Amino acid sequence: MDQSPYSSLRGNASSGGNVLNVLGLLAICASLGIAFYYQLALKELPCPLCLLQRAGMILMGIGLMMNVRFGVKAAHYGVALAGALATGVIALRQVFLHITPGDAGYGSTFMGLHFYTLTALSSLAAVAGIALLLMLKSWEAPARDPAWKSAGGKLACILFILLVAGNLVSTVLECGGGACEDDPTFYQLLGK
Hints:
With 192 residues, the protein is an all-alpha fold. The chain contains 6 helices and 2 strands; from the N terminus they run ααααββαα.
């Protein structure tokens, strides 16, 4: 019988790493959901750089979702880290495009900041969070059960998949089969 101090964590789907991966995936879902709300309810179509930032967030979410579904692995964190870095670089590119004096920026603001500025800051926070999760992974005994076995893990994965599918459909409707417009005002495939 295993009497190590970690024995109670090994079979528990709610271990620290699992819970933090589910919370991280829900944070990605919240970001994509807010962006989707602005797109659909407030009729603010995302620019090409905004779409690339969403793709980077989706890559972050895929890494976290792999941890939730298949168990925590450093390779999955690598996918999430690649997504966080790509998202941050793309967001900083957009920040630098609008940093000149007199430039009002692109799109609405949320909490007083443009979405690309918030995305750059949240990408930096994601890199720090992934580093923390990697440290926690080496400290915590591996859980035998992935977070997928919990209702929260399944809900987070399903919500993420639905948001990814919605973003894919809206991007195809917005851009059609070609390149997206720099300042989109209508969905190309819908003609309005």
